[in-house]
Design brief:
By secondary structure, the protein is of the alpha/beta class. It has 7 helices and 9 strands, in the order αααβαβαββαβββαββ. The radius of gyration is 16 Å and the shape is globular.
Length: 215
Amino acid sequence: MPAIEDRLAVTAAAYDAISARYAEFVRGELDRLPLDRAVLAAFAEHVSAAGGGRVADLGCGEGRIGAHLAGLGLGLDVTGIDLSPALIEIARATYPGLRFATGSMHALPLGDAALAGIVSWYSVIHAAPGDLPGYFAEFARVLRPGGHLLAAFFEAVNEPVTRYDHTVTPAYRWPADDLAALAGQAGFTEVGRMSREPREGIERFRRGHLLLRLG
């Protein structure tokens, strides 16, 4: 298997190549997804109740999730980070009031305990299963004790971790219990989870969401 840096470069190049089409495809998507908005609101309220502070949208793409969080009125200080320079350019142009930076989830450009919260919205799906423990360890490093992580992913139902052909670049579906267990090894405690069925004719797989707390 190629080194992690090579795998990340492949993912970044794939999203660079379709950045404009991707941004157009997801435009306004949250307006049609009340359960997704609800889980994002729950994350934001937990972060706010724990004292608020800086939140990172990791794998932020064109910026819609971070912008939604910033617009909830809970005082979250949102930064978006993504592998794709092209998507970061679009995010900066679309949401000039937010901060965006190019970076990788396996080596974040952030100090220890710098964050109150992390959202990983379908961004761990492209990570090889063997890489995920390191990702969760990095999330734990940059979160302060008691900080919250919201991870969205495609669920593998009644089957093990499963590789599939994602529209952009290969990805993995995870059993929710297995993903929660991996996070637990990095020091996270599950707060709650939400699953929803795929939208008929639009989505292929069940959507999973884990809300986790560090410590």
